[in-house]
Amino acid sequence: MSSFENGWALTLIVFLPIAGAAVVLAVPKAREEAQKWTALLFAGVSFVLSVIVAMQFDYGDAAATQFGTRSDLTWIGAINSNYTIGIDGISLPLLVLSGFMTVLAIIYSWNHWPEPHNPKIFSALILVLATGMNGTFVALDLILFFVFFEVVLLPMYFMIGIWGDRNKIKVPVLGIETEMRLYASIKFFLFTLFGSAFMLLGFLTLYFQSGLETFNIGELAAGGLAEDALGNLAVWVFAALFLGFAVKVPMFPLHTWLPDAHTAAPTVGSVLLAAILLKLGTYAFIRIAIPILPEQAQDWAPVIGILAVIGIIYASFACLAQTDMKRLIAFSSVGHMGFVMLGISTLTDIGINAAIIGMVAHGVITGLLFFVAGSMSHRYHTRDMGRLGGNQKLMPIMGGILGFTAMASLGLPGLAGFWGEFLALLAAFNPLAGLSTTLFRTLMVLGAIGTVLTAGYMLWMLQKVNFGEPSDEWADHDLHDVDKYELAAWVPLVVATLAIGIFPRIIFGATTDAVTAMVQTVFGG
Amino acid sequence: MSSLLAFAAPLILATAEEEAGHAVVHYGDGGILAQWAWLIPVVPMVAAFAIVFFGKKSPLKGWGMAWGSMAFVAVYGVALFISNMIEGINYQGAVSIGDIGTDASGNTLGLEWGWMVDGLSIMMYTVVGVVGVLVFTYAKGYMEGDIRYTWFFASFALFGGGMLVLVSAPNLIQLIVGWELVGVSSYLLIGHYWEEHENTSAGIKAFLTNKVADVGLFIGAIIISLSVGSFRFTDIMEVVASGDTHSTLARFSFWAGVAIFIGAMGKSAQFPLHVWLPDAMAGPTPVSALMHAATMVTAGVYLVARMFPFYNTPGFADDVRWIIIIVGTLTLFLTGLIALVADDIKKVLAYSTLSQLGYMMVAMGAGAYTAGLFHLFTHAFFKSLLFLGAGSVIHAVHSNNMSDMGGLRKYMPQTYKTFMIGSLALAGIFPLAGFWSKDEILASVGFAGSNYTTAQGGAALGNFVLVVAIAGAFITAFYMTRAVSLTFFGEYKGHGHPHESPKIMTYPLIALAGFSVVVGFINIPGVTSFFTDGVAARFFAPGDHHATGLNYGLAVAGTLAAVGGIVIGYFLWFADKETQQERDKFRIPVLYPLLEHKYYIDDFYMDGIVRPLRGPVARAVDWFNGHVIDLVVNGTGVLATKVAKAVYWFDQKGVDGAINTSAAAASGAGGVLRLLQTGRVQQYVFLIVAGTVVLVAGFIIF
Questions:
Q1: What is the DSSP string of B13-31?
Q2: For A431, which DSSP code?
Q3: How many other C-beta atoms are found inside a 10 Å radius of the C-beta of residue A522?
Q4: How far apart are CA B46 and CA B49, in angstroms?
Q5: Which residue of A has its CA nearest to B187?
Q6: Which helix (H) or strand (E) holds B114?
Q7: Do B184 and A412 touch (CB under 8 A)?
Q8: What are the CA-CA distances from residue B550 to residues B448, B462, B554 (Å)?
Q9: Planar angle of CA A73, A77, A81, nearest 5 degrees
Q10: Which residue, among B376, B424, B396, B170, has the nearest Cα to B285 in the 3D structure?
Q11: A353 vs B100, B201, B626: nearest CB
Q12: What's the average model confidence in pLDDT over B226-235?
């Protein structure tokens, strides 16, 4: 086995971006072109490597960990935490997605620098973020996972806090007036940290109380030993993990950081937040919570399913009430992640498969939606849908892409978003044996009704923003249609949306065997 | 690539058997014609994309590509149609696009794109292709000078592609994909003139009404495919054909049948989900003709036909049949009445379409597979003719309202003549197409009424439905007489000088008029049975229960009803040309307001459902989000800072070190921030510190 396959490829994919960040920081502040090219180079190579890995990946054995390090590569010896990384069919699509979105974010940023500018620090933050995201998808050691999971926090916090929306808002309850970005960034940070604290607590309990004294996910999951050893403590461990992951997803009612963070974040921040960061939570459910604590997962599945569907319906109604375009898209993420969680909560291979393709599709589609919304608010200097209108006339290409993406987002069959939604509903009809079919079938019907509401708010959004006659307000504005950087960043997403929609095997080819094997191992088929 | 091609191999080259008792018929695989039939949906689809990207620069501005793709479908469809008449074709091909996992009994569920070439789909290819190419021809003239000429043809070609994806679907998934693709192209084309708020609202109404129905379709498709362990129609029908009433499918079949039918009710605009179709008339007239009359709206009927054995086999969803009949009956009668009071000529035709779709559903419910499809087939020709004729008139007088028309027969002789033929065909006058197909429906309802005297109260219901269906024939003739009178007779009431439309518009009218005369002859009971034999070519015996002979009693009754409608209509609107429009304003108390307000159903949906959900309910949820959940969140924030201070005060020793470290780290970060910007750094550095304190405290407490 070559060293490329033996951990080095993944290591490079994970750490090239952060190395790039260091190089970017070394470039003098004035030389912006050099900074941008450096960032693109490092992110690009990382992404290309992940594509090479995807091409060399043995799909016939997608359930096995591939490209991994030897598991005895000691990292923190004192707590038996090792540098264990690797990918299988479940993490591969997400790793590629992560690299893909990072590159597109950098391309988009080329001439879209939010105030207060400073491409140097901004690109460095994107690269640090990329390391965190990529790392989370390859980590097979809980401490390693935790570190990567937390690494993404800081860059995102700074992105929102510094480059975010400077409009003043009055915070309910606190009663203070502050800038949107300040409130949103702190809320984001503390919320996630709150969850992470419990998550870490869960990890530590697993380590100490399972008696296995290991953080290796595979070892903890093997034969359900850890869960058996935990005994009555298992429910608390699952609760702790649930809190940590559910905040990140985010699941109702832990979602309120998301609309604020998304609305306040600069465009690229929103895109990466939606496209990748939210997936860390759902991925962790699939990678950690279910395999290690399968019995708890079965006990908690109804709760997760119910919260997921509440999220779908609740978010749809919240969307209907929004006047701010970005906030609407943000709330729609809560709904879409509801479908992902519904799929996971069925604990079936179809459901989890639906969740993964739903994650990828949501990343591509909502990422694109945030790109477009960001570019529009950059031009109109407002996100108020009441003032927009006739965008299709003012900026036909932008309007067309927005229309396409909105259709993809409402789950139009033939485009990427459909598979995750439909198959999650499908899985809910026959959840894992032992789960209440009555409950899950009810959830299926409610989720299906949610698709109607989703279509409603998306179409009304299009009506307000794209259609009608433009208001006189914009008569004297120089509103140029999409520029070449925008096209360079968006066209790949449009193509991906179509490609996954028409040929979902792009994702299922990697995931199906892995998920089926996992469910077989964990729940005994 | 090679693995991809491996999956494209033909999956089933089956022979099928007719219903027990009939002669065993062996079908062919259609040879190369069937193997390449995947081009039928793909060509228009590719054309749609090509028009979007290259249409504006191409010499015909995109029309050429759209027309060419439909012409291809028409030629291919007719070739298949003829070939199917010679030897019945049963073929399906499929390409695997990914497995999604296993069902409860361990079957691997796979997703596929495929193409079905059998009697039913061939009939639909022919209708979509032939009517499509004529409408596309007409549209070149009608849309001349339109602000979004190229885009129009892109969307229209997308519709063509979507519709053909739908009818070529060999599995439920692909059917859903096509189903929603036609939905989205319908949305785009209804809202073609999106500068007007009304038009986009009509598009949204169409999309959402269909989406409501799609909840049914989704659930039905899920139940059926999981019960069978496959998405393929052939696998589903195999279970049905086995007659195993203890199968999972049989256990769930009532609810699955209802759910699928709800889906069909949306697309085929059945009462009470019919509300979107009249509003859909906001789209350009060629769209109304092809999509909202001839093809797209028949998708629901097509779906029931595709699932026909499931609905028609005892032990499966045969209980649902009576629901289908009742819904169809309500639709055909109630919507037909509204057509009497509409002033907009396109709305008259739209309500008429609803009514005819009701007939088709009644036939499907009555177990008359052939009769329902035959009416679908003939209706496609004469109703698209009527719409195109109306479009020609609208083109000339620049108004949709019949009160702005009148006397046009002198100005537009071609349009007038063809419109008359279409109207007579629709009214069911011998020997035009509508006569034959409507007669078959009446006969089959009578047949069903006398043959299903089951516990469901078959005979009584059958007779009732028969009476309503004959009354419907009367109403049809009545409102068409009114429309013809007000449009083509009397005095011209509009402005300007109306003139006949250009040849590119009148030639398609003439062609469709020709079809409206002759297509009925392919299935004259007891004489010809090309249609019956054609659509019977299926992978599974449909179990058709239509009457094979001409039922003279019903034929006479239906014809008398139609003639009666024409005669009374003649006296009401035609006889005195001077005062016809005054008489049209004659109001019958109670009934007129009820019809004018469309039974208040639209109002109820709007004021009772949509507005409350979009308004108070949505705002309440949003308020809850900001003031209840965030009360907890922000409240915790406030509390945390207070607790933090207290902890700091009480427990300096334990927490001291941690706080100092965190504070140092935080203020280090703060320093970075300060370099970058001039915001109020201290404020949030303080909050970071506070947060850190809470967390550290949390760890210690736990």
A1: -----PSTTSPP---B--H
A2: -
A3: 20
A4: 5
A5: A459
A6: strand B108-117
A7: yes
A8: 15, 18, 9
A9: 65
A10: B396
A11: B100
A12: 91
Sequence-ordered list of residues with C-beta below 8 angstroms from that of B701, at least 6 positions apart, any chain: none
User: Is the Cβ pair A448, B219 closer than 8 Å?
Assistant: yes
Partner-chain contact B638 A174, CB within 8 Å: yes
Query: Which residue type sits at A150?
Result: E
For B177-218, the pLDDT digits (tens) are: 999 999 999 999 999 999 888 999 999 999 999 999 999 999
A221 three-class SS? helix
Count the alpha carbons within 13 Å of A368 in the hemisphere toward its beta carbon.
Answer: 33
Q: Which residues contact A523 (CB under 8 A, 6 or more apart)?
A: A294, A298, A347, A432
What tokens does B215 get? 């909840």
Q: Kindly report, residue by residue over A383-411, the tens digit of the pLDDT.
A: 888 888 888 888 999 999 999 999 999 99
Specify the amino acid at residue B638.
V
Chain A residue whose CA is closest to B109: A350
From chain A, pick out residues whose CB is under 8 angstroms from the CB of B194: 392, 466-468
Buried b (16+ CB within 10 A) or exposed e, B79-109: bbbebbbeebbbbbbbbbbbbbbbbeeeeeb
Q: Does the beta-carbon distance from B633 to A191 stay under 8 Å?
A: yes
Say if CB B100 and CB A505 are below 8 A apart. Answer: no
- Give one word for B428, left, alpha or beta, with left for phi > 0 and alpha for psi -120 to 50: left
The Cα B122–Cα B128 span in angstroms is 10
Torsion of CA B634, B635, B638, B640, to 10 degrees: -100
What's the confidence (pLDDT) of residue A49? 94
Interface test with B, best of A178, A415, A467, A520 (most B CBs within 10 A): A467
**Cβ count within 10 A of residue B514:** 14
Q: To the nearest whole angstrom, how far is the Cα of B691 from the nearest Cα of chain A?
A: 7
Looking at residue B537, what DSSP letter applies?
-
B160 sits in which H/E element: helix B149-167
Type of residue at A519: V
Question: What digits encode the pLDDT tens for the residues A158-188?
Answer: 999 889 888 888 876 667 788 888 888 888 9
Distance CA B145, CA A364 (A): 38
Look at residue A355 in the predicted model and tell me its pLDDT: 96
Does the ipTM surpass 0.90?
A: yes
- Which residues make beta-bridge pairs with A344? none
Task: Output the pLDDT for position B206.
Answer: 94
Among the listed residues A179, A278, A271, the one whose alpha carbon sits nearest the alpha carbon of residue B681: A179
- Cβ contact B356:B300 at 8 Å: no
Are the CB atoms for A149 and A136 separated by under 8 Å? Answer: yes
Residue A250 one-letter amino acid: P
Residues of B in contact with A194 (CB under 8 A): 695
Largest CA distance in chain A: 71
Whether B660 has a pLDDT exceeding 70, the answer reads: no
Confidence tier at A76 by pLDDT (50, 70, 90): confident
Give me the phi and psi of B500, to 5 degrees please.
Answer: -65, 150
Total number of residues shown for chain A: 525
Strands (E), B337-445: none
Cβ B461 vs Cβ B325: under 8 Å: yes
Q: Tell me if B128 sits within 8 A of B163, measured CB to CB.
A: yes
* Alpha-carbon distances, residue B23 vs B20, B87, B285, B531 (angstroms): 8, 15, 46, 18
End-to-end CA distance of chain B, in Å? 57
In B100-148, which residue ranges form alpha helices assigned H by DSSP?
A: 119-142
**Residue A216 forms beta bridges with which residues?**
A141
Distance of CA A341 to the CA centre of its chain: 13
What six digits make up the tokens of A214? 């290991």
Q: Is the peptide bond before A492 cis (omega within 30 degrees of 0)?
A: no
B207 and chain A in contact, CB less than 8 A: yes
Q: State mean pLDDT over B263-268.
A: 94
Q: Are B231 and B173 in contact (CB under 8 A)?
A: yes
